[in-house]
Amino acid sequence: MDARKSSIAIGLVVAATLLVIAAGLMPGARTLSFDAVLRALFNPDGKIESILVWTLRLPRSLAAATAGAGLAVSGYLLQSLTRNPLADPGITGVTAGAIAPIVTCFVFLPWVSGLYYPLVGLAGGLAAASVTFWVARGGNSHPLHLALGGVSVSLFLGAITIYVLLFAGPQSTALLFWLAGGFAGRTWVNLSQMLPWVLLGVLGALVCHRVIAMFALDDHSAAAMGVQLTVWKPVLLLLGVCPVAGVAPVAGPVAFVGLAAPHIARLLRPRGTVWEIGLAAAIGALIVTAADLIARTVAIPKELPVGIVTALIGGPLFVYLIQRGRLDFKGQGA
Amino acid sequence: MSTNVPAIGLPSRWILPAAAGLVLLSFVAAIFLGIVDLPARDVLSALTGSGSREARSIVLDIRLPRIVTGILAGMQFALAGLLLQTITRNPLADPSLMGVSQGATLTVTLFLLFTVYLAHPDSYSVNELPIAWLPPMGMLGGMVSGGIIYILAFRLGLSPLRITLCGIAIGAVLHAIAIGLIAGWGSARIEIILEWLSGSLYARTWDHALFLLPFTLAGLAMLPLIYRPLFLLRFDAAVARSFGLSYRWQFSVVLLVSCGLAASAVGAVGPVVFVGLIVPHLARFLAGRYFPLVLPLTIVLGAVIVTLGDLIGRVAGGPEEVPIGVVTALMGVPVLLALLRKVP
Question: For the whole model, what pTM was predicted?
Answer without folding.
Answer: 0.79
